[in-house]
Amino acid sequence: MNKLSLFGLLGLVVRRDLLLAMRRRTDVLTTLVFFVMVVSLFPLGVGPEPDMLRKMASGVVWVAALLASMLSLPRMFSADHADGTLEQMMLAPQSLSVLVLGKILAHWMLSGLPLALIAPVLGLQFDMSVQALWILVLALLLGTPVLSMIGAIGAALTLGLRGGGVLVSLLVLPLCIPVLIFGAGAVEAVNGGMSAVSNLALLGAFMLFALVFTPFVAAQALRISME
Amino acid sequence: MGCTADGAIVYNPTLFCFRRATRFFMQQAPFLEVKDLACERGDHRLFSGLNFALAPGELMQVQGPNGSGKTTLLRSLCGFVQPVQGTVHWNGQDIGEWDDDFHAEMCYLGHLNAIKDELSALENLQMSAGLAGYTVSDQQAVAALRRMGLQRREHLPVRVLSQGQRRRVALARLLIGDAHLWILDEPLTALDVGAVGLMQELIGEHLSKGGMTIFTTHQPLHVAGVETRQLVLS
What we know:
The complex is a heterodimer.
Chain A: E1 2-3, H1 6-23, H2 25-46, H3 50-72, H4 75-82, H5 85-90, H6 96-110, H7 112-123, H8 130-157, H9 164-172, H10 177-191, H11 197-226
Helix pairs in contact in A: 1-6, 2-3, 2-7, 3-7, 3-8, 3-10, 6-8, 6-11, 7-8, 8-9, 8-10, 8-11, 10-11
Chain B: E1 2-3, E2 9-10, H1 13-28, E3 32-41, E4 44-54, E5 59-63, H2 70-78, E6 85-90, E7 93-94, H3 95-98, H4 100-104, E8 106-109, H5 121-131, E9 134-135, H6 138-147, H7 163-176, E10 181-185, H8 193-208, E11 212-216, E12 228-232
Parallel strand pairs in B: 5-11, 5-12, 8-10, 10-11
Antiparallel strand pairs in B: 1-2, 3-4, 3-6, 6-7
């Protein structure tokens, strides 16, 4: 019997959640398909004018990413809550924040990361330039972890509540507005011939800030929900 | 360190050594102590003025009708439920102050099995060990599952196992840890006669190694050579 280090524990939680997701693929696929559908509806609804499509591309992709990540949020803790695993996590001799960080990382790998990777393909529908596509992916890679992290707090607070799914969106969406503004702004800046560095730097700052605080806050929220 | 009447802190070697000695002694003999505990559910007072202590080798059964607060009591011993009044001490220190160290010395098994349908019995056991902060080898985990009567079921997804077999997977967790204190909430639910006998055997072994167990059950559970202390909630 060997003691697990903090990183060992973090790795274990991520591995466990990824393994569970692999055995239950529909949950991951629904998020991704939802994202693809929403983004694809806009060119169909608005009409094929390249100028207009190019202008709205980044906004549409970001709003769709925001909605798609809300879709998977209620599942972040609910299965573990229902089968008693969450109780055991709270009894773990290590800090609950580490376990929560592991769950957030796994959630991002299953919701945010696939969205960022598929976004360039969807961007082609909007006639985006190659440079804008790169910036879009980069912005999504920096911004979607923040969505998962802020979302974890909302998911923890609404755990076990009836209608928690809608409530979590109402709680979390307003807090994600800065990410939306700077994420979409990065692509806008490139389209306008400016540098996207300031927008990306702000997104990176959001991510680091959230990385420090949200696991702790979400862990406290879980404790409140479990009482 | 000691305190004089005017509040100045002075070094008092006798007192210092005494505290070191008590701490050392306490590490040797862990114990659980509950003082004047009261818990509520909603606005309803479940129990109050509860006092008891549990020393190594002791077995305690919490009894009472449905809704009398058995589960709430066990959950407050884990620190899930904040008591309205009173304290729970482990080795003479409040469990809130122990923080995570206390959790390393206990094993709680609740109504819920904390196992995943998608994972196999073996994976479940290794994951629960991981969440409890340690790793177990495949051999150890398989041995624990075999002991619980799950031969040739180790690699099946838990989804296809019966309720009783799932409970056995959850109980196998007790075998791989080295917790002093077992807190078992209805451990015998869904178990057949053979498994109940096995549980009695396991608890007996745990107690003989200096462990302690507090449990609730509506079925009779007798451990050979050990007197079961009764705590009745009304």
